[in-house]
Design goal:
The mean pLDDT is 95. A hairpin with a 2-residue loop joins β16 (221-224) and β17 (227-228). Strands 19, 20, 21, 22, 23, 24, 25, 26, 27, 28 and 29 form an eleven-stranded mixed beta sheet that branches. The chain has a six-stranded parallel beta sheet with strand order 7-8-9-10-11-12, with helices on one face. Among the domains are: 130-265; 449-508, no CATH class; 516-558, no CATH class. It is globular and about 75 Å long. With 560 residues, it is of the alpha/beta class. The two termini are 38 Å apart.
């Protein structure tokens, strides 16, 4: 494949632009990107704050609320219901484009002026402390909460019910401390499993039931550390090693890790794909350098999306077609925009809904043919848009996502620091803002961990009235009645880390969103180097890691 090499404007590393990339840019008539794919992703998700929440007051009514914006910020922030009400008109903030000034400068002024909602919490019920919650009910501290019910403590949890402490979990029920699990039921402390139930501490298993500490199994039942056991032996292990004892989890995960080190690992997680690269991709065709995609085709540089059709450089979205440089958008032909949902033909806009033909708009609902929140006729819009595009090509803005200076969030407030972590010094040196005053308290605990009951029969709702101190970050946290009930039902030990530290521990267990070129390590049962499998592939396992990585074909032959 022919390609050209460019130097990233931000990090100065070289990156490739292929013929396929150029064809896409020509199709949507944008200039070639000035940043490498990693820096483009970093730039986008800097604008997304999932879980740094503050107590604040509405700029409209003074009502107390939970908000993703720090109190005293320069933005007017309304409660969710106030923002969606008829008490204000976003078009009243409309201005005319000034062709003597850069577009981003004018768009920043509009972003500063138009009120924002405190949380993205749409068509949801009793999800006061969840952000980016859609169609959900009774969820607490779930961020990226789509069509869930009774879920608590999670990030990117979709179509799930009664799950606690989960990360990238979909279509699952009664799961706990699970990562990248799909269609699972009563699965605890597990990762990268599909269609499993009633299992503990399993990794990369498919259609398994009653398994403990197993790796790479398919269609197995009653297995302990990859060895078949009787039902009585299985139950005897749990009697001798109750989950209420923290030592049990250590034993299970230690044995699981030994298996992972000894057994070959698959290079990629996903199913029902054709010609894809990345990780955690499903039901896809011709999708490359992408991660956490549930379905789609003909897309590239996609990061956390449900369905992507003909898209490039999109992050944290549901369903998008012909999108480019977007964050949290849903619709068709949306470019360089943030949180534009159920929209079509949108350019450089933020927090717009059920609209079409918008350019540089903020907070519009049910609108059409608007530029900088000013209403135009269709003919006027078409002519002015064409002129504005040429203006942005001259200024070098056209095709670039919003500059980092326009983000309302500091680097460590936004989701970017979880996926592309930097120290304060690194962030500041790269031109990002940093907050030294993130929310949280210390020193207010009313109970020490050694005072907590170890017997689930003694867990009571009274525990929810106490304040605890995280063993790692020392910040205070509390237990909620729903989780206490869950721990009692499934005989689990009480957590000694706060939600954020538990979440970051789960995040650290996922492979990075980066690909390395490797060769299959299968030697086909021969010590002759010439007989080693010659298949090469891209994988999220770096070459210096200890895992034994096979190509998919060799791995499938090894699946027990």
């Amino acid at each position: 494949m022919m390609y050209m090499v460019e130097s990233c404007r931000h990090c100065k590393t070289e990156f490739e632009i292929t013929e396929e990339d150029r064809a896409f840019y020509n199709k949507i008539d944008v200039l070639k990107p000035l940043r490498c794919p990693e820096c483009r992703q970093q730039n986008r998700i800097l604008f997304r704050n999932f879980k740094t929440l503050y107590k604040s007051n509405s700029s409209l009514s003074g009502k107390e609320m939970i908000s993703m914006y720090v109190p005293g910020s320069s933005y007017a922030v309304y409660t969710h219901d106030e923002w969606w009400s008829d008490q204000w008109d976003p078009k009243s903030y409309g201005v005319e484009i000034d062709f003597s000034r850069p577009f981003f400068e004018q768009f920043q002024e509009l972003l500063q002026a138009v009120p924002r909602f405190n949380l993205m919490n749409t068509k949801s019920e009793n999800c006061l402390y969840s952000n980016i919650a859609v169609g959900s009910k009774n969820c607490y501290l779930v961020f990226g909460c789509i069509d869930d019910e009774n879920c608590h403590y999670g990030h990117i949890v979709w179509n799930s019910k009664d799950c606690f402490d989960t990360l990238y979990t979909m279509k699952s029920e009664l799961c706990y401390e699970c990562i990248d699990c799909i269609n699972c039921y009563r699965v605890f402390y597990s990762q990268d499993c599909d269609d499993c139930s009633d299992s503990i501490g399993i990794f990369d298993c498919r259609n398994c039931t009653y398994c403990i500490g197993c790796v790479g199994l398919s269609k197995k039942s009653h297995h302990l550390f990859n060895k078949p056991v009787s039902k009585d032996e299985y139950e005897a292990f749990l009697q001798e090693h109750p989950l209420s004892d923290p030592k049990t989890l250590t034993i299970i995960l230690l044995e699981q890790q030994k298996l992972r080190s000894a057994l070959p690992q698959r290079p990629f997680f996903g199913q029902r794909n054709e010609d894809v690269s990345g990780n955690h991709i499903y039901n896809a065709k011709n999708i490359h350098y992408s991660f956490d995609v549930k379905s789609g085709e003909n897309s590239k540089y996609i990061f956390t999306g449900r369905t992507a059709i003909g898209c490039n450089d999109c992050s944290f979205f549901t369903d998008c077609e012909l999108g480019y440089q977007n964050l949290a958008c849903m619709g068709r032909m949306i470019m360089c925009s943030h949180m534009c949902v159920s929209c079509n033909d949108i350019w450089y806009s933020d927090s717009c809904f059920t609209s079409s033909n918008l350019f540089g708009c903020v907070g519009l609902r049910g609108a059409k043919n608007c530029i900088l929140n000013t209403q135009y006729s269709q003919e006027e819009f078409t002519q002015l848009k064409a002129r504005l595009v040429e203006h942005m090509k001259m200024t070098g803005e056209w095709g670039e996502f919003l500059p980092p200076s326009l983000s309302p969030f500091a680097y460590n407030e936004s989701i970017v620091n979880e996926y592309m972590s930097l120290t304060k010094e690194e962030a500041v040196s790269q031109g990002f803002r940093w907050s030294d005053d993130l929310p949280g308290t210390t020193g207010q605990e009313t109970m020490r961990h050694e005072q907590l009951p170890s017997d689930p029969n003694r867990y009571t709702v009274e525990l929810s009235r106490h304040i605890l101190s995280c063993n790692e970050c020392k910040k205070n946290y509390k237990l909620i009645p729903q989780e206490i009930e869950f721990y009692v039902t499934y005989r689990l030990s009480l957590p000694q880390l706060c939600f954020n530290c538990r979440h970051m521990k789960r995040m650290s267990m996922r492979n990075p969103r980066k690909l390395w070129h490797r060769q299959c390590m299968c030697d086909k049962d021969s010590h002759d180097h010439e007989d080693r499998c010659a298949v090469e592939f891209e994988t999220t396992y770096a070459p210096d890691r200890q895992e034994i990585i096979y190509c998919e074909q060799c791995y499938q032959k090894e699946v027990i």
